[in-house]
Structures are given as structure tokens and as C-alpha cells.
Amino acid sequence: MENNSNPRVECIKALVQIERNESYSNLVINDVLKKVTFTPEDKSLFTKIVYGVIANKTFLLWVLKKYVKRPHKQQDWLKYTLMTSLYQIAFLDSIPDYAVVNEGVKYVKKRNYRKASFVNAVLRNIVREKDSIFDVPKEDFLEFLSIRYSYPRWMVEEFSKVTTTNEHLEALLKAMNSSHHTTLRVNTLKSTKEELLRTLKDKGIDVSSVDQYRVAIKFNSSTPLNNIKELDEGKCFVQSLGSILVGEIADPKPGETVIDMCAAPGTKTTHLAQQMGDKGKIYACDVHKHRVNLIKKSCQTAGVNIVEPVLLDSTKACEYFQKRFDLVLLDAPCSGLGVIANKPDIKWNKSKDDLVSIASLQLELIKNGVKLLNPGGVLIYSTCTLTKTENEDIVNYALNIDDTLSLVQQRHVFPDKDNTDGFYIAKIKKRKKGEID
Ligand SMILES: C[S@@+](CC[C@H](N)C(=O)[O-])C[C@H]1O[C@@H](n2cnc3c(N)ncnc32)[C@H](O)[C@@H]1O
Q1: Angle of CA points 319, 320, 322, to nearest 5°
Q2: Residue ranges for the binding site?
Q3: Ligand 1, atom 1: closest residue by C-alpha
Q4: Domains of the chain
């Protein structure tokens, strides 16, 4: 272990590594946290700054441009020294500005003494003009949002198609720049909400019930999950509220026959199984072998016996399965734009073209999904994204395949309104012969 008491220097190194190697930030963060000895406060500061700089990248570079020629062209360590310092000055109240400036200049002196006075001047100017740095011009509102909340313009345009007012669009973009409370889903095959709340509170963990959800509990403050043995025992699973809502809307009954077309790692599969009281049958499919193993592991942990994991490309599910199902869950692969709060890299590693290729896979999957339905059966289509291309357009396509299908429920889960990851859930029913809509 490296004994390093300076989380802010580690932030700069981590951000340089993420950019140079195009690494996922969560993996780099975990690697650093394994190597250095930080206090719990420093751990959370380190994580907050790394995610904060990635989430606010456009805005930070836009501000720096006023003080530095072509900030994005500076050497990476210098660019990230300026960006981490600016992030702390602009967004964190816990560290005095003079300490941020001194820390930044001290690091620069070690790397290249001649750059120290330049960095000192830039940061001091920023501190002096701090009150005006958030003044992004608003003439072009979408451009304003793209800079102020740091999203690629095309993403802002996508989100504008599913929000009805400018205020809602802005609130949504803002909400996705900070993480929300972690939530648990209680496994009712092994415990109850009341029992789990009592056990966790007895251990001094600050949890409470999320009353709108039958099986959801939330942590009221940041809590390391590695000490919670109830997770290893399968009494509960870490699951966002939007994801729990998918199971609640699906609402399967004991004895039904279910197919979960894109099931790994099995979070929703085990939720369905507990709702069925572990009675009936669930075929849980995934196209990747290593991920099918994760389904098996989730079921073992949850104490679920009715699941048959299947290695399958579900765009061929109709040919593979001769039978038809009471419930088809298609929790489709998607762009993941709803989970930006916890994975800010998504802002920068997805392109508009990706939506087109993902949507064509989603169409193939839903085509199979509707054909797998028993008359009277239900198809749930869900994604953790909020783009119309991957949601409404796919569902409308499906509804046109067969005139016995109808949309019985459609729900957008918005991070600003629902305080959780963004989700889309549609419930489609296939009428029985003679049944009226
Ligand atoms: C959103 S994740 C599913 C999450 C899962 N339902 C849960 O709640 O734990 C999408 C999954 O679809 C799988 N997938 C992608 N293409 C597929 C295909 N053609 N057939 C089956 N599974 C596929 C991916 O491997 C991934 O595990």
C-alpha cells in the first residue's frame, strides 16, 4: 500500500490515466483505492472529484478558455491540475479556495517549476471572478444547457424530445450530474422489509423504507456495502428504484411461465422469481456465456430454484423456444443514458450513431418478444435510457406487428422527479381471441 495522504493529487493522476488509456473511471477509482491508504473522508473526496470533473468536463473547459489559450491542448497533467482545482473552487464548499490554489501550485512546482507562476495566476484570477463563472450565455438554450451541465449537444437534443418544458429538461440534466441514494430490494423469499430495516438499523446503518415500493429500502447516507452480510446472504440486492419498478409493473403470479430475454446478471430475474414465490418457470437468457454464469450465481444467492439459465442470442428466441409465455421480459441492451449519474463516462463514450445500431438490435429483440406471447400474456419492454429512439419508437414498432397487441401502461422514470436512475417501462398485452380491448 502507498501511504499517500493527498487525494487531490491522486485525482489528477487518475483522470490522466482515464483519458490516456480510455479506461472506465469506476475501474481506475477502485484500483487507486486498493493501492493507497485514505481516510473514509479522503476516499469520498477523491471519488467525488474524479466523477465531478468527468461529469462537468465541458463547463470546466469552457471556463478555463477565458484564462488559458486552448486549455484542452495543454499537457494532460497540467490540464487536469487546472480542471480539478477549478472543479473544487466552483462546486465544493468544503475546501477553502486558497487551499485549492496552494495545493494545485505545489503539485505543478513538482512536475514543472516553470509552469507554477502561470497556474498560480490563472487560479487566483478564477477565484477573484468566482461569482461570474457560471454566467453561460442563454441565447441558444440547448447550447447553454450543453455547456452549463456538460452534455454533448446531441444528448441534450435527445432528452428535449422526452421532456415537456425547458424547466424539466434543465432539472433532468442537473439531477444526472450528482449521484442519488443507493437502494436495496428486499428478497422476500429470505426476509421482509421490516426485518431488514430492523437488522440494518441495529447495526447503526442509516436506512429507511421507500414506501411507494413494496420491497425497497434506501441508504440515507453513503455506506460501504462490503460490510453488509445480508447482501452475501441473498436477503437483499442492490437495485435502483427504476429497476425495481420493472418487476412491480410486470407483477408475475406463482405458477406462470416466464421468459427473461436479456437477463444477466439476473437482478430482475430474481425479483420476478420472488414475486412468483419461487413457483412456476423462468427461462433466463443471455448472449454472453460469462454473463449467464452471473445469472446462475444470483439465483443461488437468492435461493431461487425456478430459473433455467439459457445461453442464447434472443434475436433467435422464436426459433429456439417452441412454447409461448405468460410473461415476456425484454430488459433490452441500451445506450444507458439514464444511469449517467453513476457512470458519467457515458456522456463522452456514446455517440448518436450508437443509438441507431442499438435500436436495430432492440427491434430484432422485440419482434421475437411479441411472437413469444401467449394470448392473454404480457410483454414488458424496459431500458435504462430515456431516448425516444430506443423506447417509444421500439414499442410503437411492436404494437404495429400484431393488432391483438395493446399498450396498457407506459412509464418514464426521471432522475429529477423520481430521485433514481432514468428508466423506461412499457407494458404490452396480447388479447385473447374474442377479448375486447
Ligand atoms: C440491460 S442488461 C440486462 C440486465 C438484467 N435484466 C438485470 O436486471 O440484471 C442487457 C443484457 O442483454 C444482454 N444481451 C445483449 N444482446 C443480447 C442478445 N442478442 N440476446 C440476449 N441477450 C443479449 C447483455 O449481455 C446484457 O447482459
Answers
A1: 80
A2: 286, 313, 331
A3: 333
A4: 7-132 (1.10.940.10), 141-175 (no CATH), 182-238 (3.30.70.1170), 241-430 (3.40.50.150)
